[in-house]
Amino acid sequence: MAQTLLLVDDEEKVLEFMAPFLQQEGFHIRTARTGAEAIRIAREARPSLVVLDWMLPEKNGIEVCRELQQMGRMGIIMVTARTEETDKIIGLEVGADDYITKPFSLRELVARIRSVLRRVDEQEPEAQMLERGELTISEAHCQVWKRGKEVQLTPTEFKLLLTLAARPGIVYSRLQLLQMALEDDFLNDERTVDAHISRLRKKIEDDPAKPVYVQTAYGFGYRFGDKG
To answer: According to the UniProt entry, where is the signal peptide (predicted)?
Structure first.
């Protein structure tokens, strides 16, 4: 069954540029031209991934991204003409899994889409449940609970948490996390890991400034607290 992609851009020409090519790649395509329309269609269609423009009428891409996070796990790729690094970090911090700057090639877009979808879809049928302190992590269902309440993580956040939690106390460099958890040649800036870690901490730590689970190994990278 074809996976559904939701393409969100206020320019009809951009949607006409992307949609036919992605349909030829085997995806089912829905489109939206405003932030409000994107939210409505996402609730209805439950897409596997949203390609989301930053600048939108009614609600901008950042606002839409935040609302999409409340609907459960779906991949999100921010598309924008903004090139500043701070804009990229903002996009990642609000839950985007990747970030692509206009102009871009359709082949690059497809590669990024497939990479994010792998992180959404990868599930091991016989994968174990990890119990780490007050966290329960289901590898098979890509779900996390804290004190019995489900924590909504993006696919990227889940992969980072699972990688670290599988071996408590082991320090991973940012480069190792890019290679092992993100598995994405495009996200080759090690600082993007920091943005994902920051957002993950806000979701699973009682006090993100004093993390118990995802700890910083200063000068090296990150580890999962062995007493978590």
So the answer is: none
Instruction: Show the CA angle centred on residue 46, arms to residues 44 and 47, nearest 5°.
Output: 125
pTM, two decimal places = 0.58
CATH 3.40.50.2300 segments of the chain: 4-121
- Which CATH architecture fits 4-121? 3-Layer(aba) Sandwich (3.40)
Hey, what's the torsion of the CAs at 70, 76, 82, 88, to 10 degrees? Answer: 80
3-state secondary structure of 51: strand
Residues of the chain with CATH 1.10.10.10: 129-224
CA gap 228, 211 in Å, rounded: 9
Helical H runs in the chain? Answer: 12-24, 35-45, 61-69, 85-93, 106-121, 155-165, 174-177, 191-204
pLDDT digits (tens, 9 = 90+) for 109-151: 999 999 999 877 664 444 567 889 999 998 877 889 998 888 9
Q: Which long-range contacts (CB under 8 A, 24 or more apart) does 190-199 make?
A: 191/89, 192/88, 192/89, 192/92, 193/160, 193/222, 195/89, 195/92, 195/93, 196/92, 196/154, 196/156, 196/157, 196/160, 197/160, 197/222, 198/93, 199/92, 199/93, 199/94, 199/95, 199/154, 199/157
> pLDDT tens digits, residue range 167-190?
899 999 988 888 777 655 445 567
Instruction: Yes or no: say if 95 and 65 are a contact pair by the CB < 8 Å rule.
Output: yes
